[in-house]
Amino acid sequence: MRVPTAVITAGSLIGGWQLARRTGVRPLGGVVLAAGGVLAGREWARRTSPAVTGALAATYVGAFGLSHPLAKRIGAWPAVLAVSAITAAASYVAADRRP
After folding, report:
1. Where are the transmembrane segments (predicted)?
2. DSSP single-letter state for residue 94
């Protein structure tokens, strides 16, 4: 069964943040984030062009980076949910949606 990359990206952003928050060990969250990125990246590379794969990877990494300053403005949960939704939407439109 094929797991949509939208689910992988959103799940790893939210899951990585929650794991780091609950354990207090930020590198554990990074492991989840990296694993999600590798898994989604492999699927993007299989399903799309190199340019689209690069754009989706940049969106994923950028979402992680954006969540930090955004959390200072709107709070942690809203920030993580917002960047996860944006990343999931981009993944769905570019790689998961069936033509």
Report:
1. 51-70, 76-95
2. I
Burial annotation 58-91 (CB, 10 A radius, 16+ → b, else e): ebbeebbebbeebbeeeeeeebbbbbbebbbebb
pTM of the complete model: 0.92
Contact in structure between 88 and 6 (CB atoms under 8 Å): yes
Domain around 61: 5-96
* Alpha-helical regions (H) of 24-75: 26-47, 50-74
What is the total count of domains within the chain?
1
- Report, in angstroms and rounded to the nearest whole number, the Rg of the chain calculated over CA atoms: 13
